[in-house]
UniProtKB/TrEMBL annotation:
PANTHER family, per database record: ABC TRANSPORTER G FAMILY MEMBER 20 ISOFORM X1, ATP-BINDING CASSETTE, SUB-FAMILY H, MEMBER 1
Protein name: ABC transporter ATP-binding protein
PROSITE patterns tied to this protein: ABC_TRANSPORTER_1, ABC_TRANSPORTER_2
Record key words, sorted: ATP-binding, Cell membrane, Membrane, Nucleotide-binding
């Protein structure tokens, strides 16, 4: 990405406390215009809180920076007008039709030509034919599409999407991601939180947060490389494999099942090899070196974070 592309999000030191608990702790985020940045982390790690500070709905207790060139502390109202925020709950009126929901949002933004803005949003998301259906009667995938239409109606330059595909079927998720990539190609910046690894892989770049702190950032390849994990895949009749013993073995940071295999990962290659070597003697079991994937890395990072932060005063528990 050429450095002359402006930063749509450029914040540092972002911090939020609830009482004695620091739920977002010194977070820095930089996302260039037109990029799709995946925001990952376990439940309760501070993603929603960070997103709400970025769109001006929550005032940070610390930190500074800009969103779309506007001051994240001073210009909250102006930021809100240029940002599309999709919440986890979609925020639709179930007893209004698709069109009525969009008209309502267009009114909230006091858009000058409401009818046209609604028509454009309906057309863009393929909702025109269903415009008179009640939102409450739509399937999860169509609700999600309507929610995306609603957050695009004022033509925002930045989309903040908080777990937009939770509970949505694979076809609808694929359509959604195609749409997100089309929007990014038009120059719209997207910060999207997700728990799905296949969605993380569709992002241009990723930020991983746990206990309110950023633990990893970069492209998928950069994050995997930086983690420096050694991974062995143990496959075969896994009933014979004592995964609890594996988890407790020195140097093992994660043991995760993938279909008929488990991935055993850690940073110390020699220790990992030592842990898995005896398994190769079990009947039908094969042990081979594998490439680390994002999930291996994130499981390993959260394990380290638990050791480092979970017992710290004010730590958030997920
Ligand atoms: N208004 C509030 N008052 C007190 N604590 C809060 C408040 N809002 C959030 N928290 C706490 O802050 C922490 C971070 O919450 P947040 O919703 O930002 O996490 P998240 O990463 O979005 O989680 P999830 O993946 O489950 O959506 C959690 O421990 C949560 O309980």
């Amino acid at each position: 990405m050429p450095p002359e592309v402006p930063l749509a999000i450029d914040v540092r030191g972002l911090t939020k406390r609830y009482g004695p608990r620091v739920v977002v702790d010194d977070v820095a985020l930089q996302v260039r215009a037109g990029r799709i940045c995946g925001f990952l982390g376990p439940n309760g790690s501070g993603k929603t809180t960070t997103i709400r500070m970025l769109c001006g709905l929550l005032t940070p207790d610390g930190g500074a920076g800009t969103v779309l060139g506007l001051d994240v502390r001073r210009d909250a109202l102006a930021i809100r007008r240029q940002v599309g925020y999709m919440t986890q709950k979609f925020g639709l009126y179930e007893d209004l039709s698709i069109r009525q929901n969009l008209t309502f949002i267009a009114r909230l933004f006091a858009l000058p030509d409401r009818g046209r803005a609604v028509d454009d949003a309906l057309a863009r998301l393929g909702l025109a034919e269903r415009q008179h259906q009640l939102a409450g009667a739509l399937s999860g995938g169509w609700k999600q599409r309507l929610a995306l239409a609603a957050c695009l109606i004022h033509q925002p330059r930045l989309l903040l999407l908080d777990e937009p595909t939770a509970g949505v079927d694979p076809k609808a998720r694929r359509d959604f991601w195609d749409q997100i990539h089309q929007l990014a190609a038009q120059g719209i910046t997207v910060l999207v939180s997700t728990h799905y690894m296949d969605e993380a892989e569709r992002c241009h770049e990723l930020v991983y947060i746990a206990y309110g702190r950023v633990l990893a950032r970069g492209t998928e390849a950069e994050i995997v490389a930086a983690a420096g994990l050694t991974v062995f895949e143990v496959a075969g009749p896994l009933e014979a494999v004592r995964t609890d013993a594996l988890k407790a073995a020195p140097g093992v940071q994660s043991v995760a099942a993938f279909g008929n295999a488990v991935h055993v990962a850690g940073r110390d290659g020699a220790l990992i090899q030592q842990a898995v070597a005896p398994l190769a003697a079990l009947p039908g079991i094969t042990v081979r070196r594998a490439s680390a994937n994002l999930e291996d890395v994130f499981i390993s990072l959260i394990g380290q974070a638990q050791d480092n932060f979970a017992s710290a005063p004010g730590a958030t528990k997920s």
